[in-house]
Structure formats: structure tokens, C-alpha cells
Amino acid sequence: MAREVAEVPDVAGPLCAGWTEAERVASVLKARSFPFAVICGRGSSGHAGVYLRYLIETRCGLAVSASAPSVVTGYGRSPRMDGALFITISQSGRSPDLVAATRAARQGGALTLAIVNDAASPAAVAADLVLPIEAGPERAVAATKTVVNSLVASAALIAAWSGDGALTRGLAALPLRLAAAYDLDWSAWATDLADAPAAFVTGRGYGLGPVREIALKLCETLRLPALGYSAAELRHGPRAAIQPRMPVLALRQNDQVAEGIDALVLELRRANLRVHACGGPDGTLPWLAPDHAACDPIAMLVPAYRAIEREARRRGFDPDAPAGLSKVTETL
Known about the structure:
Elements: H1 2-6, H2 8-12, H3 20-30, E1 37-40, H4 43-60, E2 64-66, H5 70-73, E3 85-90, H6 96-107, E4 111-116, H7 122-126, E5 129-132, H8 145-162, H9 165-182, H10 187-193, E6 199-203, H11 208-222, E7 226-230, H12 231-234, E8 248-251, H13 258-270, E9 275-278, H14 296-314
Parallel strand pairs: 1-2, 1-3, 3-4, 4-5, 6-7, 6-8, 8-9
Helix pairs in contact: 3-8, 4-8, 4-11, 8-9, 9-14, 10-14, 11-14
């Protein structure tokens, strides 16, 4: 895991500027009109799908839904998807439910796209289009560089599809920012996790996918119950569950939702809760000067991954092989 996190700037770099694969897929999408889009993914790939949803809805104006693969594999029904865009995100491309959902969507009339690390995987074969994220082999069970590349590939695709020059420029700056983020020390947050019975991670908008991803890494790598919530959602019922020994990590990108995240951080601190904030005037964790709001949450994953990996080692856990987990999760 440590080695693969260190590889992030290098493997993400080729996807960040003039990536022909994104241009190729975008040219097909530009020639079509879609009534809606559906994104299919589980675990870390599902969190990448949350990120992609925000990009599609804000940049392309297309409504996006999350797929429920068990509708196909468990209930034996295939939803009608005439003319829709169906996107499967999977590092391995081998989970049977994702493959079955992709096949069903294609048979149901959708244009199917697989965003995968293995371009020869069953999910890729099942799809009309393939966008290979090109992260290289990943050995640790906890996905890191493949998650980052899934997000970067998604941003590159949407920049090319929508013609968003600002996003294109943000991506071009991302490799250097990923390298700089790698050097940031978030051990203050990790230290607070040491005696925590549970943890919360929060953010909003483009940061929500990374928020949920970090919470997952806390669960699988540190064996720590962790929940990732939208900053808006956290202020409803989940707020009551936060106790003084449960640290909250807040990710804050500099955009239209930043004010709400700042307000939540201030509210939690006034309640004497442990809050570690990345970004903004109330940030406590080391961070960079703000850049593109859709790219910064990607870079925030890197110091979080490093802190989690180091804390796992400190606890005597093997972050590369968490108990009860395997690299390819075969669900139906």
C-alpha cells in the first residue's frame, strides 16, 4: 500500500493532459444524446462513481442514478434503459454482479462504458466502450492508486466531453499537486484515531466520493468503524452520534459548497468535538493553496492514504492484506 500510494503522481500523470483515451470515448459521447446516465460500482469504485456523478450533473447537465446490480442478479429483472448511458467502474472488472449489470444494461438499450484497470476484464468485454485507467498492477487489497486514477480518468473524460477548459487546466496541474500532497503529514489526525471507537469523515459536492473512500479505508485497513457523510446530511440524524472520542475529518474544496462545510466545522468545534479540517480558513491539516475544486479532493486522498497506512503499521496490522478481504470481491 505504501509503495502504491507513492506511485500515484507517476501513474496519474499520463491521464492528466492530452490523454487520447479520454478524447476517444468523449468523441462517441458527444455524438449521442442521452436521457439520463446510470453509474454502477461497489466499494472504492462506487465512491469514484459518486465523484463522476457530480461531474456529469454539473458539467453535462445530465441526471445520474446509481445502479442496483441485485435488481439483475438477485431479482432477475432488467430495467429499461433505452438510449441511456450506463457506466461501470471497477478496478478488477471481475465482480460477477457488475458484469451482469453491464450486460443487462447493454441488452436493455443503453450505451455501456467500462472504466477499468484491466481492459481485457469481463466487465470491459461486456461493455460497448472501455476507458482503461492505466494504473498498472495493484497488489494491496486496499485500493489506492487505482482509485485515484479512476477519479482522474473520470475528470479527464468529462473535461473532454463537456469542453470544460478550466477542468482541463486543473487536470494539467494535478500531477505536481499529487506529488506535493504526498509530502503532507496528516499524523495529527491519525494520532486522534488511535483511541477512537469510531470516526466520521465529511465533505460535500466533489469531495463526497473521496469522503466515503477515506471512511472505507479506515474500516478495511484500521478495522475502525467509520462513516462518510455529506456535510449537509451529517447535520441531520448522524450528528447526534458523534462523541468526543470520535474524530471528524472534514475535506473542503474552494467552491460553492465550501461555506456549508466551514459552518459544520465551526459548529462541531463549538461542541468541543475533535475536528481535523483540510482546506479553507479553518483548516488544521497541512494543505496546498486551493486550485480547481474538482481536482483538489483527488489530491486530498494521498495524505489520507499515507496516514492510514502508517497508523495500520503502528497498530501491528497488515494494510496490504486486511482480515477477511481479498483483492477481487465476487458478489452477486
